[in-house]
Each structure stands twice: as C-alpha cells, then as structure tokens.
Design brief:
heterodimer, A: mainly alpha, MetI-like fold, 16 helices, flat, B: alpha/beta, D-Maltodextrin-Binding Protein, domain 2, disordered N terminus
C-alpha cells in the first residue's frame, strides 16, 4: 500500500487576479453587471443617457453662431444640415451677450462693474480663506461696501464717504459714552448719532463738499442697471447684509429682554409669512403711492432692502437652528470663564453655531441669489426680463431655449461655486465631533 | 425735536412735490426728460435693440411727445412696465404718460381715473389655426382646444363668443405669448387666440408661416391708446394733439422727407397752422410754434411710423386695415387743426 496522502510543502507562487476581476473590467463587472437585475438597469440607464445626449449634444454643438436674426439662423441650418430641428441658434447669445450680462449699462463704462466684481473677490478673500490671506486685507473688506456703490453708480465721491462717516460718528459716540456712562447707553447713542448723521447732516455735508471739491466719476442711473450684473448686485448685497442682520435677529429671538425678543419674533414671523413677490410689489407699487409724489427713492435700493429683509428672516431661523444644537454646557462653560454676553457669543457660541449652520446658510444664500430673478415681474430688466425683451425684437421673436440655456449656465456657475465652497469650509472646520 | 424737523422737512417736500405735480408740462420741461411707460417687450410695439435703444410703434409716440415738448426726440426715459405695474406707475407719477398697447375701456377711463388721449392702434381679438385643421371660420371650432392667456380680457371675449354661437371649447391656460408659441407649435392646442396684431407677429416667427392661417372673425374691439392721469388737462391736451398731429400729417401729406420744405410756408392754411407758420396753436398748448413739426420730424407721420415698425414691409407685416385714414376706409380721423 502506497502512501497517497499529499501535503504540499512549498508555497505556490502568487498569481495575478483574473483579468475579469481587476481594473476597469473588474469594476464594471462588480458595479454594473453584478446580477441580471443590475444588468438590465445598466442597459436601460445607458440607453436613457444615450438618448438624452444624442439629442442635446448635436443641439449644442451643431449650431449657428453668426446670424442677424432667427430667420437667417434657420436659413443657415437648412443650408448646412438640411433641417432646422435639433440645432441651436446661439447667434442670439453672440448678438446680445453683453446686454444679458450688463443690461443697459453704458458700454464705455463696463470696466466699472467688472472692477467692482474683481474687487469683490479681493474683499472676500480674507473672509473666505482666512488661513491663506493676510488679516490686514480685512481693512479693504471694510472699505469695499462704500467703494462698490461708488463704482456702480458713480457720481460724487462724497456720497459714499459721508455714508462711511456715519459709522465713524457712531463709533465715536459709542467710545465716549461707553466709558463715561455705560455700554448700553453707548450703543444706543451710537445708533442715534449714526441715524441723525445719515438722515439730516449727510446731505448738507455731501452738498458742501462736492461744491468745494468736486471729485467724481460719470453717474449711471439705476434704470440702466440690468442683466446678470443686477442679479449679482442684488444677490451680493442681500447675502452680505442679511448674515449679520440674521445673527442679530437670531440672538434677539433668544434674548431675555422681552421687547427685543418679541420685536425679533414678530419681524421674523411676518417676513417669513409673506411671499417675496408680495414684498417686491410693496417695494415697487405701494411705496410709490405712500411716499409724497416726486420723491426719488431709488427702485433698486428699495428692492435691495426688501430682499435683504427677506433673506435676513430666513437666515435668523437657520442660525437659531445652529444655536439650538449647541449643548447647554457650552453656555455654562462660557459663564464660568467669566465672559460677558458678547464675549461668550464671539468666542464660544457663534463659532460653533455658525459652523453647524453652514449648509443651511449656504442654501439660503443660493436661494436668495436665484430669487433675484423675481424682479423681472416688477419691470426691472434682470436677465430673465431681458430674455423676454430680446424675444420682443422682430429679429429674435420666437427664440426660446437658447436664452434660457445661457441663463441657466450663468446661474449654475455661481450657485455651484457657492456650494463647493461651503463643502470646503465644512471640511476645513471639521473638528471630529461626529 | 429732531423727529419734528424730519417730519417737517418731509411735509414741506410733500407739499412742494404736490404743487409741482399740478402741471406735468412744466414738470417735464423742468426735468428735461419725458418719463414714458412702455411694455417690457412686445414685438413691433416696444423693445430695446442690441444697443439698448428702444424701438417700436408705441415708443415712437413717446419720442414724438418728447420732441413736441422738449424739442429732442431722444429726451425720453423709457420706464418698462408690466401688465400689473403699469397703472400704479402712472397713478403714482413715476411716469408722465403710458404708451403700452393698453385697451381703452370704460372702467379704466372712469374708475381708475385715467384719461385716454386717443387711439393709436385699433386692434381686435382673432384666431390662428394650423391650415391642416381644415377650418375656415371660427364658428367651425366646436370642441377645439384653445390656448389663451389667463387673466386678460381675451379670456372673457372668448367665453362670450363661444357661448353666443352655442359651441364648446376646451381652454389651455398659458401665461405669456412666448409660452403660447411653444405650446401651439407643439400641438398642445388647436387654436391660439389673442390680439390680431399679436397673432400676425407670432405667425411671422414660425418656420413655415404659410402652414397657419388667421381666421376672418375678429371677436372684440381693442382700441389701444396712450393715457395720462385724470385732472391734468393741459398735459392730456399735449399728448392728444401730438397724436392727432401725426395722424393729420399723414392725411395732409406731410412726411419727414418734405416737412422742411413745407415748413417754409404752403398754400394750404391747415398745413401752415399744423406746422406753426400761421396761427398760434403752439402757444395755446403752452409749447413752441413748431411743436408739431418737431413731433413729425421725430419719426415721421403716423403712416411712416406704422410702416417702419409693424407695416407690411416688416417681418410682422400688418395691413393698415382699420388703422387706415378715414379717407381710405379706416378709422383714423383727426379733428381739424384750427
């Protein structure tokens, strides 16, 4: 009897995995065709994607870029492809893209909104990328809110300067009164001083200074603002101003001071209970009837105020969500360190509450930015309003999808950037509590 | 104390403004610009071109009034208004006149406290159908689906028409003219109904305009005209007689080509009175003697304005129809300049 038992004594050499299990092929097998059901889904999905792309891609790329009217576009399409279906007429964008971007802004002054946009990025850099940009840049960020209106509207330089001086007056009164009397009196005095300056004194100051030293650039009227520029202008102002107001409202809603609390609750609930379009109609129509005839209250300023108030109310609720998510221990810890209310808010509560609220805050930003298109309903020529005005030109009447595709692209670029930035910020501020 | 100063200032400003509003003519002259309300865009009637310059039939009337009052056809601030904002803009004084294809109706004239100063375009509601439908009269449209803009008088006219002819229809509500074009071409409705001028303009944009026909029935009266606020009759007269001047100029054969020649003086006393070489008509209006000549020079007489913006030579291709001079079977009939 022979010994048939076999024990391998040496290791087999390692072999490469079969070709069907690795690389692209393996990935496809595991992810797309792992079972008969998945296979069917894959095939159906691929067909759906093919179907959509086979229609959209030729429409986008087999298109006419140079023509003076829709009919000329159609003639070129007939001559080139023998059919007018499934081909875009981008000539309308080629013809009107400057108008879609800038509205009726005088073309020799296009550099001003462009410069304002570039400077906006510069002013935002120290806020958005605080770890990579020197903090001293914040001085420019503080100047920018006064520089931007000067660039956009032009006119005398003393208007923005006198607006800035209101803050200086407020700060001055605050620093004197808070030392001499108390902090609360200082704050109230500062607000009163600033309001008096803006409402009463600043017009005399502006008038006097511009007659003494007439420094200024060509003025542009609000009616000439339009296009995507208007969306960015309204969006940036609403976003930039609503965040601080929203923080104050959120804190006010949680305040122990009864009147402050109910004022904030009333404001938030009223604004959130009313559609934005109603507020815009109030801004454009009702105010016209209430104000004395002949008052020149700029329509864009009115719309800006309404959009800012609207987004501030939403912002307050988003931030209140962040505040509510903080454990009570954080507040007590701040108290035990002997911090006063504002120190605790600034050093402990707000940094955490805002971090928690980032996705909600950015959603509100994106929402309000897209809501700026509603101003076309009250007769402002934003990018949507311009699209219908362009359609009303005999040359382009009947064109539809091309204009909306272009507008969608513009909005997508901005909204997608905001969304990506918020994800970057969340990763950066991630402290591993989850 | 401070508050009372502010309130006092506001009151004075209000009083001053109230006093100033009393005379729109003086207001416009002081401002050096006419604030004219137009649509946010309607083919042939008002639309900004690639340079942001407003063009169109209604726009020409604004320019003519600006030329008559200020002597400069470009001294106009065009204020785009929507169907919802137009009347408030006029009532609140944001605009001096509204030239926005607005139908002259009883309630607008009487109840809304406006004054229509004439008719610059006689329109009416019509029907467009595809030729393939094989229909030659609106009375054959029993059971048809109809694309109709909601919230307009066209909706009510349509219901009246079908009820009085005892036939049925199914409405497809749409919001804007652009949407209507898409729906109609996609076959969502058999019939598209709106003002006949709008139908013609819409059909002109189709790839194959010949495949669609406008039915002969016109089922409503839509006299479109400029309007001003109630109560300021001097200003109303200026707008009314500027429009009349354009109409009379066509009737009398005064065109932008021959006006300089005619302004030197002619044998026809009515032309002389119109162009200010005889009589004191301009002075009565509170304007220069050659106010009408300036208005006509701005864009030509009524016929020239019509031909340039919406006439048969343009892509819109509207025939004069009701808008011909009364001497040629139309309704344009300007009172005499005397």
């Amino acid at each position: 009897m022979s010994d048939v038992s076999f024990v391998r004594t040496e290791m087999l050499p390692e072999q490469a995995p079969p070709a069907s299990e690795v690389g692209a092929l393996g990935w496809v097998k595991h992810n797309l065709f792992s079972s008969w059901f998945n296979t069917i889904l894959t095939v159906v999905s691929l067909y759906a994607i093919y179907y959509v792309l086979s229609g959209v891609l030729p429409w986008i790329f087999q298109s006419v870029w140079n023509a003076d009217s829709l009919n000329e576009c159609r003639e070129i399409m007939m001559a080139t492809w023998g059919s007018t279906h499934g081909h875009a007429c981008w000539a309308v964008i080629n013809d009107r893209w400057l108008q879609l971007l800038f509205g009726f802004y005088p073309s020799h002054l296009y550099w001003r909104p462009i410069l304002a946009l570039v400077l906006l990025l510069v002013a935002l850099a120290p806020v958005l990328y605080s770890d990579r940009v020197p903090t001293k840049m914040l001085i420019f960020s503080a100047i920018y809110p006064f520089l931007m209106p000067f660039l956009m509207w032009g006119g005398t330089i003393w208007g923005p300067i006198s607006a800035a001086l209101g803050f200086v007056a407020g700060w001055f009164v605050y620093s004197v009164l808070s030392k001499q009397v108390s902090e609360l009196v200082g704050m109230i005095g500062a607000v009163v001083a600033a309001v008096i300056w803006w409402l009463v004194l600043s017009s005399y100051f502006t008038g006097a200074m511009s007659s003494v030293l007439p420094i200024g650039i060509e003025a542009v009227e609000s009616r000439q603002f339009g296009g995507f520029m208007l969306a960015i202008l309204l969006g940036v102002v609403a976003i930039g101003v609503s965040l601080p107001i929203g923080i104050v409202l959120a804190l006010g809603r949680q305040s122990d001071l009864l009147i402050v609390k109910y004022l904030c609750v009333g404001f938030i609930e009223f604004i959130r209970g009313v559609p934005l379009i109603t507020l815009l109609f109030v801004a454009s129509l009702l105010l016209n009837l209430f104000l004395p005839p002949g008052t020149n209250f700029d329509i864009i300023l009115r719309v800006m105020i309404m959009m800012t108030l609207f987004s501030a109310a939403y912002m307050a609720e988003v931030i209140r969500g962040g505040l509510a998510a903080l454990p009570r221990g954080q507040y007590e810890g701040a108290d035990s360190l002997g911090l006063n209310y504002w120190q605790a808010q600034r050093l402990i509560i707000m940094p955490q509450a805002l971090k928690i609220s980032i996705p909600g805050i950015v959603s509100t930003f994106i929402g309000i930015f897209k809501d700026t298109t509603l101003v076309s309903i009250i007769g402002l020529f934003d990018v949507i309003g311009l699209a219908s005005a362009i359609r009303a030109d005999t040359a382009w009447n009947g064109i539809y999808w091309e204009l909306f595709a272009f507008i969608a692209l513009l909005f997508f670029i901005v909204c997608f950037s905001m969304s990506r930035y918020s994800m970057y910020l969340e990763r950066k501020l991630q402290t591993g509590h989850r | 104390m401070k508050k009372s100063v502010i309130l006092g200032a506001a009151t004075i400003a209000g009083l001053a403004a109230g006093a100033a509003v009393a005379g729109t003519v003086d207001d416009v002259k002081a401002r050096g610009k006419l604030n004219c309300g137009v649509t946010t865009g309607l083919v042939g009637f008002a639309a900004p071109d690639a340079n942001g310059e407003w063009q169109g039939f209604d726009v020409s009337l604004c320019r003519a009034v600006a030329a008559a009052v200020l002597g400069d056809a470009s001294a106009v601030e065009f204020v785009p208004t929507t169907g919802k904002t137009r009347f408030t803009a006029l009532a609140s004084g944001e605009i001096d006149m509204l030239a926005r294809n607005t139908t002259w109706t009883f309630s607008r004239d009487v109840d809304l406290k406006f004054e229509f100063t004439g008719v610059n375009y006689y329109d009416g509601q019509g029907f467009m159908v595809p030729k393939a439908l094989g229909v030659s009269s609106a009375k054959e449209l029993d059971g048809a689906t109809v694309c109709i803009q909601t919230g307009t008088t066209t909706e009510l006219n349509l219901a009246d028409f079908f009820r009085s002819n005892n036939i049925s229809y199914e409405p497809v509500p749409i919001e804007t003219n652009a949407e209507a074009q898409q729906q109609y071409l996609a076959g969502a409705c058999d019939v598209y109904t709106t003002d006949a001028s709008g139908l013609a303009a819409t059909r002109a944009t189709f790839e194959n305009p010949g495949d669609h026909i406008l039915l002969p029935e016109i089922i409503s009266k839509e006299p479109l005209g400029p309007l001003v606020r109630h109560g300021d009759h001097e200003w109303g007269d200026v707008v009314r007689w500027t429009l009349n001047a354009l109409v009379s100029a066509e009737e009398l054969g005064v065109t932008s080509a021959n006006i300089d020649e005619l302004a030197a003086g002619t044998d026809n006393p009515e032309i002389n009175r119109l162009l200010g070489t005889e009589g004191t008509l301009g002075e009565m209006l509170g304007l220069d003697a050659d106010w009408a000549a300036k208005a006509i020079k701005a864009g030509g007489n009524y016929g020239e304005v019509f031909a340039k913006n919406i006439g048969e030579e343009t892509p819109i291709g509207l025939a004069r129809g009701l808008n011909a001079q009364w001497t040629e079977g139309g309704l344009l009939y300007s009172p005499p300049f005397r």
